[in-house]
Amino acid sequence: MSARLPHQSRSAQLVLILVALAFIGFFLVLPLVAVFAEALAKGLATYGAALVEPDAISAIKLTLLVAAISVPLNVVFGLCAAWAVAKFDFRGRSLLVTLIDLPFSISPVVAGLVYVLLFGAQGWAGPWLIDHGVRIIFAVPGIVLATILVTFPFVARELIPLMQEQGRVDEEAALALGASGFKTFLRVTLPNIRWGLLYGVLLCNARAMGEFGAVSVVSGHLRGLTNTMPLHVEILYNEYNFAAAFAVASLLALLALVTLVLKTSLEWKFGYSHGSAK
Amino acid sequence: MISLHNISKSFGAFAALNNIDLTVRDGEFLALLGPSGSGKTTLLRIIAGLAFPDRGHVRFNGEDVTELPVADRKVGFVFQQYALFRHMSVLDNVAFGLTVRSRAQRPAKAKIRTRARELLDLVQLDGLGDRYPAQLSGGQQQRVALARALAVEPQLLLLDEPFGALDAKVRKELRRWLRQLHEQMGLTSIFVTHDQEEALELADRVVVLDRGVIEQIGTPEEVYMTPRSGFVSGFVGDSNSLAVTVRGGRVQFEGRPLDLPVERLREGSARLDFRPHDVTLSKDGHGLPLQVSGVYRRGGSWRVEGTVNGSDRIVEIDLDAHAAPPELGDRLAFSITRARVFAEESVR
Question: Is A270's Cβ below 8 Å from some Cβ in B?
Fold first, then answer.
């Protein structure tokens, strides 16, 4: 880009670019490189062994399971919330939008503690749950609940502005042509929001798999049972098993990179597909 | 036949429509004309079933459809910005109304495509079926929207500001073409417009709306020549207004009696409306004094603007294009040959 504001000197431009690059290099690229370097420091064999070890496999499986449950639920919730906010006028609409943002503004630790307070042994519903043999805290359900709470804004936040901008007229056109509500959603609304939805799902998924704080509070850190990948990394690290810790961490980092690439390509497609062919 | 009885609709404290009664005959081409905020689009949406009245009834051929949603009314609706589905090809857009039918009523795939192609032929877009809406011009998009609405074979075609987004030349062509299509297909059509010229040119009858109330219903000729209120007179066609008083059955302007045949006069202050072409100018001082403040050519005539009696009230007058136009600053006199007096409103 050679476009400059009239009063901007070329040297100022250069300095700003260098500062930004140095910042990104130091805080983002360097750590990422370090993760992979550490993971592979003791050779590929050690790297592979750390990933196929039973506790690691169990952590990976649990992480996938949690994401597989929480992401679809948040897609449904996000669609409903965005639809309600964007296409209907009702009292408390702005309150709903504010509440959707809540998980962004509270500490994940608090989000986890809330469920301990609700369902823990000393919590409100705890004794009743124990009597009926239902375990939520220190078990998979708690992890899923905490993950859902932390990740639910992602899809909704992505869709609300998009659907608000698109308005209701396309849906009205479909209805006027005799389409049912469901067909209108499937054939008109969904295609209109598909890129935004996919984008939201990606971000939601990345966070669901990477969440540490809230999950840490409710998980109980039971190896092979309630450890997700981020928790497993922490345990390995605390045991000075750096190579294994970084090996598992590298998987999470890889997930971040894949998400980034997909997100960028979506943005590219999103940006150019809007209002034009395909 | 479509009939509306006592339709009222409010948005919060704003009364969009107030006690609307209207009957639309089969085969009629009807214009809903009014300024923005007059309730014309709301009325069209209520007829379509996209909006629902707070009070009153909508009947199609005597059957009460007030609560029937749009999908069940079998009307064709053309939206202001066309609302084409941007992720579908033109052909898929046109076919949409047929493809979303329930399995029992849906024609075979090949048949749907044939029908969609026929409709594209009808709107003179043959060969553009594989394009996407964004690749078409405004006029073409408009015709796709029309073909899509006609695919479900509606008896009633509703159009919201159908020519609003088009440039003047395209607009004129489309108008003529739409009128032909209306005749050819035996449709009943209702369109919303804020453009009085469009309403007068296209419609069999014009419904003039203002602030949620019907001011007048009539043929273009009636609405233009015998406006029933000051609002209609001012909104439909160009019109001059003077504040006058009626005394002893005669119209007076600033104390001078005007020689005008006017009917049904009430004593007191009133508003005198006359068209620019219902005025004669003279140089010999016969009539009201006028100082020329503007002269310009307006197609086949001259438009002269002048101030009356040294006030800042401006009157517009049409002169024959072959006559020599007056000069700026000329002091002339004008007399009104045909006018209407409205008692109710003040002069805008």
Answer: no
- Amino acid, res. A69: I
Whether B20 contacts B3, CB under 8 Å: no
Cα of B47 to nearest chain A Cα, Å: 12
Distances (CA, A) of A239 to A175, A235, B327: 62, 6, 101
CA-nearest residue to A188 within chain B is B85
Which of B151, B148, B155 lies closest to B63, judged by CA? B155
Residues of A in contact with B47 (CB under 8 A): none
Of B10, B4, B5, the residue nearest B54 (C-alpha): B10
Return the beta strands (E) in chain A as ranges: none
| Cβ–Cβ < 8 Å for B185, B173 | no
Exposure pattern of A237-250 as b/e (b: 16+ CB <10 Å)? eeeeeebbbbbbbb
Do the beta carbons of residue B151 and residue B90 sit within 8 Å? Answer: no
ipTM score here?
0.84
- Provide the whole-model pTM: 0.81
Of B75, B85, B131, the CB nearest to A176: B75
CA torsion through residues B323, B325, B330, B331, sign: positive
Average pLDDT over residues A52-70: 91
Q: Which residue of B has its CA nearest to A166?
A: B83
One DSSP character per residue, A157-198 reads HHHHHHHHHH-SHHHHHHHHTT--HHHHIIIIIHHHHHHHHH
Q: For testing the chain A interface, which of B85, B93, B144, B153 should be mutated: the one with the most A CBs within 10 Å?
A: B85
Q: Which of A169, A180, A278 sits opposite B79 (nearest CB)?
A: A169
Q: Which residues of A touch B86 (CB under 8 A)?
A: 192, 275-276
Residue B40 parent element (H or E): helix B40-48
CB contact under 8 A, A178 and B151: no
Tens of pLDDT, residue by residue over A88-147, are: 878 888 888 888 888 888 888 888 888 888 887 777 887 888 888 778 888 888 899 999
Task: Write out pLDDT tens, residues B13-66.
Answer: 899 999 999 999 999 999 999 999 999 999 999 999 999 999 999 999 999 999
Look up residue B122 and give its two tokens: 């009808």
Pick the closest to residue B306 from B276, B268, B285, B284 (CA basis).
B276
Is the Cβ pair A191, B75 closer than 8 Å?
Answer: no
The verdict on A188 touching B (C-beta cutoff 8 Å) is yes
Q: Is the pLDDT of residue A43 over 90?
A: no
pLDDT at B346 over 60: no
pLDDT over threshold 60, residue A2: no
Q: Can you spell out the DSSP letters for B259-322?
A: -----S--SEEEEEEE-TTSEEEESS--SEEEEEEEEEEETTEEEEEEEETTSS-EEEEEEETT
Paired sense of beta strands B240-247 and B250-253, if any: antiparallel
pLDDT of residue A3: 59
Tokens standing for B273? 């409306």
Q: How far is A70 from chain B, CA to nearest CA, in Å? A: 30
